[in-house]
């Protein structure tokens, strides 16, 4: 089973790397952070943003309301790290947040690793 998980991880990483390379304007670097294009229309990135807000709410007893992800980069590292700039409503006021989500889709695993307001 462990061998199968490692194979699926590598297969996903190669697949993601190829897709990102084909759609990115700048060259993709393995292990580095790469811009995810058209995040507004990327349902997976928007779902990760919603997950980040819900996970933050659950861990802090906050009541943020997810609006949208406006910027995202990805890094392949034992899965996929995605860092995002998210807009969420707090007491009906829009605020920007930076969030990192670590994902292993072949294991149905997501973890919020970082979430904080963006200071302007």
UniProtKB/TrEMBL annotation:
**Record-level Gene Ontology MF annotations:** cysteine-type endopeptidase inhibitor activity
- Organism of origin is Vitis rotundifolia
Family note: Belongs to the cystatin family. Phytocystatin subfamily.
Species classification: Eukaryota, Viridiplantae, Streptophyta, Embryophyta, Tracheophyta
Coiled coil segments of this chain: none
Residue stretches making up the Cystatin domain: 28-118
Keyword check for Ubl conjugation, yes or no. Answer: no
Q: What is the protein name given in its UniProt record?
A: Cysteine proteinase inhibitor
Alphabetically ordered keywords of this record: Membrane, Protease inhibitor, Thiol protease inhibitor, Transmembrane, Transmembrane helix
Q: Which residues cross the membrane?
A: 7-28, 48-70
Tree of life domain: Eukaryota
Question: What's one Pfam family here?
Answer: SQAPI
The signal peptide, as residue positions, is: none
Q: Which InterPro entries match?
A: Cystatin, Cystatin_dom, Cystatin_sf
């Amino acid at each position: 089973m462990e061998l199968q998980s490692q194979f699926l991880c590598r297969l996903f990483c190669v697949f993601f790397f190829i897709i990102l390379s084909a759609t990115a304007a700048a060259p993709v670097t393995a292990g580095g952070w790469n811009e995810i294009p058209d995040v507004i229309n990327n349902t997976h990135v928007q779902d990760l943003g919603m997950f980040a807000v819900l996970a933050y709410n659950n861990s802090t007893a906050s009541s943020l309301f997810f609006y949208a992800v406006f910027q995202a980069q990805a890094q392949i590292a034992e899965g996929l790290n995605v860092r995002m700039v998210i807009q969420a409503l707090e007491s009906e006021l829009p605020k920007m947040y930076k969030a990192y989500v670590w994902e292993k889709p072949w294991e149905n695993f997501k973890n919020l690793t970082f979430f904080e307001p963006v200071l302007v």
